[in-house]
Amino acid sequence: MIRAVFLAMGETAATSHCQKKEISISSIGKVAGGGTRLVCTSVDGAAQVRRELSSKLMKDEAAREQHGPGWGFVERP
Fold first, then answer.
1. Positive or negative, the Cα torsion across 11, 25, 66, 60?
2. Higher-pLDDT residue of 75, 13
3. Are 43 and 21 in contact (CB under 8 A)?
4. For the segment 8-45, what is each residue's pLDDT rounded down to a tens digit?
């Protein structure tokens, strides 16, 4: 099972849901086409998010926004 979940909702809403349900977050970030990439600290937490927010799951795995040196200058495949 994978700890990453792609959600069609904002970071604030995803964070708020996890806080209410006591699901710990390892990482959270924007998705380039809109939405949020949420990484839970446990597989069980990710499974719980998938169950509870099944209507907000993104159908296709989306690419994260890339940050850091060189991302604006070097074309990546």
1. negative
2. 13
3. no
4. 999 999 999 999 999 999 999 888 888 999 999 999 99
Measuring CA to CA, how many Å separate 30 from each of 13, 35, 49?
Answer: 12, 6, 17
State whether the Cα torsion 56-47-5-13 is positive or negative: positive
| pLDDT of 70 higher than 60 | no
d(CA 8, CA 5): 10
- Domain map (residue ranges) of the chain: 4-56
Size (the chain), residues = 77
